[in-house]
Amino acid sequence: MVTALSSNRRTRKDAQHNRTHILAVARHVFASAGAEMSMDGIAKQAGVGSGTLYRHFANKDALLATLLDQHHAELQQQQATIEAEERDAGEALSRWIDALGDWMLVYDGLSETLRAAWSRASSPLAPTCQTLIDATERILQAAQKQGVARQGLTGHDIFLGALAVAWAGGARTADPGTRCVLRDMLKNGWAADNA
Questions:
Q1: What's domain 60-195's architecture?
Q2: Sequence-separated (6 or more) residues with CB below 8 Å from residue 89
Q3: Domain coordinates of the chain in residue numbers?
Q4: Which of 24, 89, 100, 151 holds its CA 20 to 30 A away from the CA of 60?
């Protein structure tokens, strides 16, 4: 005889299995096809109905936010390492912009999704974007205090600059050297005249 308790456990276990499977498939699909893949396309690839996918993730931003949690934790570790190792605040900012740009290129097309999400407070990606803007602001302020970064810039400005570089330097939009050229232009834009 199946009790309600054992039935609920099985339902929760099945739901957890579906969620884990969807995340694994979505990770693979986004890595191979880019972040533009539709939710219906992900459901089809995962072999689940759209309703099952939407029960776990209200929209693609929610799905991406969950997938990016691990990458975000790695980026936060890089930030801590950069801040601990670098006495030169300008070099710390330069390294942070590179790390931020790498994070924005985890999935091709992610930069476009982030661009749309950062300004929508309702997006599940908005808190991640704001956390990264705040981290960029702290690193930028240290560089400004040392006189190696222009006054008047904000972490928001640098974040958007890195986002533009990631978008323009993405796999579908540029030749291999474009990101380096644009990254150097961004650095020349934030560096103080005497740096």
A1: Orthogonal Bundle (1.10)
A2: 139, 142, 143, 145, 146, 148, 149
A3: 1-57, 60-195
A4: 100
Which whole number is the average pLDDT over 12-34? 89
If you count them, how many residues does the chain have?
A: 195
Q: Which pLDDT score is estimated for 10? A: 59
Which architecture does CATH list for 1-57? Orthogonal Bundle (1.10)
Angle at 163 between CA 149 and CA 61, to 5 degrees: 140
Look at residue 87 in the predicted model and tell me its pLDDT. 92
Confirm if 162 and 137 have CB atoms less than 8 A apart: no
Distance CA 1, CA 7 (A): 10
Each residue's pLDDT tens digit, 46-91: 999 999 999 999 999 999 999 998 888 999 999 999 999 999 999 9
